[in-house]
Design goal:
This protein is 32% helix and 9% strand. The protein has 227 residues and is an alpha/beta fold. The protein has two domains: 177 residues, 3-Layer(aba) Sandwich (Rossmann fold), CATH 3.40.50; 47 residues, no CATH class. Helix 3 links the parallel strand 3 and strand 4. It is globular, with a radius of gyration of 17 Å.
Length: 227
């Protein structure tokens, strides 16, 4: 199949029989967050990091600050690549993006086989954001390891990093919760030669090698995600 080009994918699909794992990065991050995942998962899945605008190869594009608009654009751009079975993984802000995209696609009967999330509160319990000064946001980013303290000595770079995070926080703040039926995430029957255990092995990979780095919310706290 001749797939169209899209700026939302940092890598082209391999075109083999593996299910595709679409990865959505954290606030202030970029698709390169998942650069090592392709080798780490090997033959299990085809890892496809999603690149949001305003960073790395898309640095000159306006940043997305409206979640509903971003999800609609992602749905349009990524739809040709989402041949079942496919999976979503979202980290922090990426979990929120992946969740809303999964809801949108399920409403049309084309949802993912699995939604994997890390470092994000359940969508119905997300607290409202707060206003951070540049200094407060810089200190917080350094505290959690999201920015090197050496950037403070390079004000232009520090301002760019803070500006990116601030735009991503506005994107998260545009999240609106509404009650909905649980996402239908069935026990996958992978038609591409991996058998029903393929996604389960992928889940173990995410929950094992990356558990300490990407802590996940307990399943019971995502009632609208788990059927």
């Amino acid at each position: 199949m001749n797939l169209p080009a899209t700026p939302y994918l940092a890598a082209r699909p391999a075109g083999d029989e593996r299910p595709r794992l679409f990865c959505f990065h954290h606030a202030g991050g970029a698709a390169s967050t998942f650069a090592r995942w392709r080798a780490a998962f090997g033959s299990l899945v085809d890892v496809l990091p999603v690149q949001l605008p305003g960073r790395e190869s898309r640095i000159r594009e306006p940043r997305a600050t409206d979640l509903a608009a971003l999800v609609a654009e992602l749905d349009d751009h990524l739809d040709p690549f989402m041949e079942p079975p496919y999976l979503f993984y979202g980290h922090s802000m990426g979990a929120l993006v992946a969740y809303h995209l999964a809801r949108s696609r399920q409403a049309r009967g084309h949802g993912p086989s699995a939604l994997l999330v890390g470092a994000c509160a359940p969508p119905d319990r997300l607290a409202g954001g707060r206003d951070w000064s540049d200094e407060e946001l810089t200190d917080r980013l350094i505290e959690i390891g999201g920015m090197s303290a050496t950037l403070v000595d390079h004000p232009a770079w520090a301002r760019a990093a803070v500006s990116l995070v601030r735009a991503d926080l506005r994107l998260c703040a545009s999240h609106r919760w509404s009650a909905c039926p649980p996402l239908a995430l069935p026990d996958p029957r992978l038609r591409r030669g991996h058998g029903p255990g393929g996604v389960r092995r992928c889940r173990r990979g995410l929950g094992g090698a990356h558990r300490r780095r990407f802590p996940t919310a307990p399943p019971a706290r995502w009632p609208s995600v788990h059927s």
